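Incident review: delayed structure delivery

Summary: a single-chain prediction request sat in the queue longer than the usual turnaround. Root cause was a stuck worker, restarted by the on-call engineer. No data loss occurred. The affected request and its eventual output are reproduced below so the record is complete for anyone auditing the incident later.

Affected input:
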Amino acid sequence: MTIRYPRPLRPGDRVGVTSPSSGVPEVLRGRLDVAVRTVEAAGYEVVVGRCMDGAMHVSAPAAERAAELTAMLTDPSIRAVVPPWGGETGIDLLPLLDFEAIGRAEPTWVVGYSDMSTLITPLALRTGVATVHGNCLMETPYRPPEGLLSWLDVVAAPQGPPLTQIPPGRYRAAGRDDWIAEPGIRDLTLDAEGAWTRLDGDGDVDVAGRLIGGCTEILANLAGTPYLDTAGFVGDEPLLVYVEACEDDAFTVCRNLHGMRLAGFFDRAAAVLVGRTRAPGSPTLSQHEAVLDALGPLGVPVVADVECGHVPPFLPLVNGARGRVLHTAVRSQIVQTLD
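Output delivered after worker restart:
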């Protein structure tokens, strides 16, 4: 399989907004409006779909959500699709999506994380079209800290030149912003210091491979199915696999990662990146210990506390891109190349 990259966005391009999982309740429409204006200020036309209702845990019946997403991904005038955020049960779209039609269409960027892992990871694996594990629409107004990119930077980047991201060394340890009271907030609160952590041992890490991954709570439910089959992905190239947990406790994370490993998801991993999490540990098993228990047998570097999860700030990763991870006592970075 050869990775196909959607062409970089240009001023005037259209960006589709739809909720393949959860929609936006009325009390948060102010934040949605700010987010839409942020994308428009970047030079794009925003097309908001019908599947946006936030009264329930899904924005519309599954058939309607699947049809709207497929229509946007096969419309040559729409160059990127971004949801307001993740959700809970977007998995119900998978059997309803026409992966063949999407794969035949001109590639379109799809952005998201959390429950969107249900879609962006299978889309990359099944069609060979690169997708972005990146901050969703409602988070787009935030200014990335120095060293990191926004999804808007990624989808507008030309193919070839490297995209280098360096962790800022700070993150948000607790709390979240009140988008009802302050819908226009743009400054991230990063109130704690923190760096990447190698879990499997000491020594420098310098490893390359194709990126693939997503949210553990979501991907564990796809393990062993055709939607998470990495066997034919980019031939026999090594993979840089990234995972992150939102709220599952350490025991659940441990079981999920064991299951994903037994199903073969990590078979070609040259290294594993693990997102920083606020999810609880237990008196006998921390989140770091859970990861190492499940993934230590791989015998590859396992680097935790990477900014690719539910803890701000966010480091966008492109499924299918060539990546190189460097982690030493004095420097950490990830370089992605869209080729």
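Verification: Helices lie at 29-41, 62-73, 99-104, 117-127, 151-155, 216-219, 250-262, 287-295.
Action items: add queue-age alerting; document worker restart procedure.
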